[in-house]
Amino acid sequence: MSLYQKQLGKIGEQRAEDYLKNNDFTIVKKNFRTYRGEIDIIAKKQNCLYFIEVKTRSNLKKGQPWEAVNKIKIHHIKKAVDYFLLKYGYRKYKLKISVISVLLGDDEEIKFFDNVEC
């Protein structure tokens, strides 16, 4: 991954975090990594715990950012969710895997896809 891609990803994750906070989510953890997978943002709102994949693009040459989330990525996220729950609990929450799609540029766009399954 190039330095540009890493910087783009960090900007996208910050935009996603701002979006969540502005919509009454509480950030629980960011960039939770295990050997099983990674979760960009873990947030809670009311009785739900959200495991969020953030995808960022600066243009649409390769399609919408959310289109990069496939079955394999969801599978890895689920494995990381299992480990997170084993380590930290949160058993009383309803669990959701979600995607935040961030398109940067003049027409910046942030889309939240709640409770996705591929």
By secondary-structure content and strand pairing, the structural class works out as alpha+beta
What's the main sheet like? Answer: 5 strands, mixed
Count of distinct strands: 5
Q: Write down the secondary-structure element order.
A: HEEEHEE
Helicity level: 25-40%
Instruction: Give me the number of helical elements.
Output: 2
The global form is: globular
Q: Look up the CATH topology.
A: Trna Endonuclease, Chain: A, domain 1
As a percent range, the share of strand residues is 35-45%
How many individual domains? 1
The spatial strand order of the largest sheet comes to: 1-2-3-4-5
* Ends apart, CA distance between termini: 25 Å
Name the quaternary structure. single chain
Mean pLDDT: 92
| Name of the CATH first level | Alpha Beta
**Which segments are poorly predicted (pLDDT under 50) over 5 or more consecutive residues?**
none
| Radius of gyration, in angstroms, nearest whole number | 14 Å
Can you name the CATH architecture?
A: 3-Layer(aba) Sandwich
